[in-house]
Structures are given as C-alpha cells and as structure tokens.
Design a protein that fits this description.
- The protein folds into two domains: 171 residues, Rossmann fold (3-Layer(aba) Sandwich); 145 residues, N-(1-d-carboxylethyl)-l-norvaline Dehydrogenase, domain 2.
- 43% of the residues lie in helices and 19% in strands.
- The protein contains 13 helices and 14 strands.
- It has an eight-stranded mixed sheet.
- β3 and β4 form a beta hairpin.
- The chain is globular, with a radius of gyration of 19 Å.
- It binds NADP nicotinamide-adenine-dinucleotide phosphate.
C-alpha cells in the first residue's frame, strides 16, 4: 500500500512520518515553502523523545495513481474540496481531520471514505518541520468506514498506523467518536480568541452544553469526554518538546500563522448548522464561529480578544435570542 498524505502539516506530517518509520511507502503532498523544504531537506519530526529528519518523497499536487494508493486527507476542513481536486475518485480517502463534515463532502465524489477520530497534539512549526507532543505515542487514532462499519481496508490501515509511534484501532462507529471529539473541539475557537485566560472554561462549557442539547435533539450519538478519556487517558500524554512551546491547538495555530482562514465553520459552525436544522438556538457557538472567522480574516494574532469582550458578545447574543 502507498499512503499519500494530502496536507502534510501538523497531523499529516506526523502520520506520514510515523507510517514511513513503520516501513511503509509514503508520499507527502504539500504546497508553497513547505513543499520546497520537504523536497530539498526532507521532513524534520520533533517529538519529546527525539528529532529525526526523514527523507520522504513529496509532491505538490496529484501524481499518477497506483492501484494500492490510499489518500490520507489531513488539511483543515475548509481546504478539503480544493485539496482533493485532480485525484482519481476511485481511490479510498481517509479523513484524518476534526469536525464531522469532511466525510460527507468527500463521499459526494469518492465512493470509499473512511473517518479518523484524531487525537494527536502537533504543530507545524515552519516549512519542513513538524513537532508532535504526544508521549509515549504521538497520537491515538480511531478509524472506521464512513458512515459506519469496519472493512478489511480499515483493518489494514489500523495495522499499518499502529506499527510505529501511534495507537490505532478500528471502530464500527467512527462518527460517534468524531461527534464526541467535535464537542471537545468547540474550545478551539475560544482558545484562539482569548487564549487560556482564567474563566475561559466557563465559555467552553456553555458552548459544549449548547452542542449536547443540539445533538440530543438531532438524535446524533456522541461519546462523552469521560468515555474518550478512559480510552486515551492511559495511553497518550502531552509533553513539552525541547525548544518548542505549544501555544495552542490547531485553530490557535491558524491565527498564529496568519493563514487567513480558520476551521470554525466546521466546528462551532457545525453546531450552528444543526441547531438551525433542528430548531435549537445556538447563540454561544454563533458568536464563536463569527468572531473566529473575523479574527482569521483580519489576521489578528491569537489571544487578542479580552475574555470580558467575548463574554459580553455572547451574553448580548443570548439576550437577543431570548427576546
Ligand atoms: N494540530 C493538532 O494538534 C490537531 C490535533 C487533532 C486534530 N487536528 C485536525 O487535523 C486537521 C489538520 O490540522 P493541522 O493542525 O494538521 O493543520 P496544518 O498544520 O495547517 O496542516 C494542514 C496542511 O494542509 C495544507 N494544505 C491545505 N490545502 C492544501 C492543498 N490544496 N494542497 C496541499 N496542501 C494543502 C496546508 O498548507 P498551508 O499551510 O499552505 O495552508 C497545511 O500544510 C484539522 O482538521 C485539525 O482540526 C489537528
């Protein structure tokens, strides 16, 4: 099998590196300065244990396909459609992304789609360099066929992922896992906007409570943070990596890199969408979605909004909703 990792950033770079270290054929797909660095110097993976430079083949777009190719999609959700342009639609696509919208978007064009619930704290530091903070494994991945089930390919992918530096398991209900993870990822926008300010947890709890009401109304199953912790808590720990401070999660990193976009439409925005479809007000997630997008668009740095400002905007929206 050849694993083609589309979007070899924090998560894609780590997964690609671990598959390569496990002896698999890997191709990293990247763009711009990151592609140039991968092509000329290889991928540098920094972990709490070691730093390795890996000579992994790289491409900046679609390459001639092989029968045994598997596409691992690891872009942010807002880049999913563009990143898959030009790849043969009979290849299997494995969505190693947060949110729950990617699999459905991809299934419109690709007939074999797999979801991965990704717990893998990592950072794309600079072109050609990725830091993965998980210890003793870089991450934990639950893999399943979309919309449900486990087939032979899912089992094979899990075996390959688990060979080096990752914990992987096949689950028949991957979207239940991903909806549980989505609830956790509602904090991403809060962290990106206000940083890890005292009192941030109260906003996060409000966003999560709203999400659980919406998911319950929609009849969508999700696992609880307790269930998730039971599975991952004993296996992967977040550790500092020498010389690298992990400022925040992937949305925080989007603002830090002034990338101009952020994943909030597919995290908080997913709850807003479901709320609108099922008649549940979602003022907290609406404000988080809107403000995260504004900060990305205006290229404001992470943690640039005072917590009180965010709380005031949310309270104002909640009051308007209840009038
Ligand atoms: N980072 C984490 O700790 C973490 C943990 C769990 C889950 N996740 C999830 O994993 C997914 C990926 O996040 P990430 O943090 O790894 O993002 P990331 O570091 O920004 O990596 C995504 C990569 O995809 C590239 N890309 C986007 N469109 C492309 C295209 N058309 N062709 C080629 N490359 C393209 C980006 O390039 P540019 O830089 O040029 O845009 C970037 O290098 C997200 O859904 C995120 O929520 C992240």
């Amino acid at each position: 099998m050849r694993y083609i990792v589309i979007g070899a950033g924090a998560v894609g770079g780590t997964i690609g590196a671990r598959l390569h270290q496990g002896g698999h054929d890997v191709l990293l797909v990247a763009r711009g300065a990151h592609y140039d660095a991968l092509k000329s110097d290889g991928l540098r993976l920094i972990t709490p244990e070691t730093t390795e430079t890996l000579d992994i083949p790289a491409a900046d777009g679609p390459v001639p396909a092989r029968d045994d190719d598997v596409l691992i999609l690891a872009t942010k959700s807002q880049d999913t459609i563009a990143a898959l342009a030009g790849w043969p639609e009979d290849l299997p696509v494995v969505c190693a992304q947060n949110g729950v919208a990617n699999e459905r978007m991809v299934l419109r064009r690709f007939s074999r789609v797999y979801g991965v619930c990704v717990w893998l704290p990592a950072q794309h530091l600079e072109p050609g360099v990725v830091a993965a903070h998980g210890h003793p494994y870089s991450g934990m991945l639950q893999v399943g066929r979309y919309p449900q089930g486990v087939d032979d390919l899912a089992e094979e992918i899990v075996t390959d992922l688990g060979k080096r530096g990752l914990v992987a398991r096949a689950v028949p209900d991957v979207m239940r896992w991903k909806h549980g993870k989505l609830i956790g990822n509602l904090a991403n926008a809060v962290e990106a906007l206000v940083g890890r300010a005292d009192g941030m947890a109260t906003v996060v709890e409000r966003a999560r409570a709203e999400a659980m009401t919406v998911l319950d109304r929609a009849g969508i199953a999700y696992n609880t943070p307790e269930e998730e912790f039971q599975v991952r808590g004993h296996q992967v720990d977040v550790r500092p990596v020498e010389g690298v401070s992990r400022g925040g999660g992937s949305s925080w990193q989007s603002l830090a890199r002034a990338s101009g976009s952020i994943e909030a439409d597919y995290l908080n925005g997913e709850i807003v969408l479901l709320g609108r479809l099922h008649g549940v007000p979602t003022p907290v997630n609406e404000v988080l979605r809107r403000e995260a997008n504004r900060h990305a668009r205006e290229q404001l740095p992470p943690a640039s909004m005072p917590l009180e400002t965010l709380v005031a905007l949310i309270d104002e929206r909640c009051a308007a909703e209840s009038r």
